Amino acid sequence: MSPSTTTLVLSLLEFSPEPAHLVGTGGAIGAICRHLVYRHLSSDGLPIATLTVNVLGSFVFALLVFGGASESTVQLVGLGACGAFTTFSSFSVETVQLWERENRLLAVGNALGNLVLALAGIGLAWLVVSLV
Q: What's the rounded Cα separation, in Å, for the pair 72 and 101?
């Protein structure tokens, strides 16, 4: 390898553990919180637990962004905790399962509800920050 190639490879391999630790710690916290929400709100009908975590997570993440939180706070709470707390995969699977069980209206309502309410949570966070 030429010296410039070696330098390039080494620069790509540089790793700062602090952001990874912050995101990982936040992720653990978010995953535990999500588990607690699912234990208390799971139902056979509308996936209210998933809707709840997606809306709350969107609101909190938006508060951080619009509120000008520090980079480390965004890493810990936003990327880590909110990232693990919210779930696009569960939302997608639950929506398809509703559709497959012939609950077409509920499936569409779940999809629209997640999108509209998550965006409303972001809008509410923007409003809260702009009023403070």
A: 43
Do residues 82 and 30 lie in contact, with contact meaning Cβ atoms separated by under 8 Å? yes
Pair of tokens at residue 15: 């790793």
Query: Residue 89: what residue type?
Result: S
Q: What is the pLDDT along the chain (132 residues), one digit of tens a residue?
A: 555 665 655 555 555 668 899 999 999 999 999 999 999 998 888 899 999 999 999 999 999 999 999 999 999 999 999 999 999 999 999 999 999 999 999 999 999 999 999 999 999 999 999 998
Amino acid identity for residue 88 in this structure: F
User: Which has the closest alpha carbon to 33: 87, 81, 77, 91?
Assistant: 81
Q: Rounded distance, CA 85 to CA 40, Å?
A: 15
**C-alpha span between 108 and 119 (Å, rounded):** 17
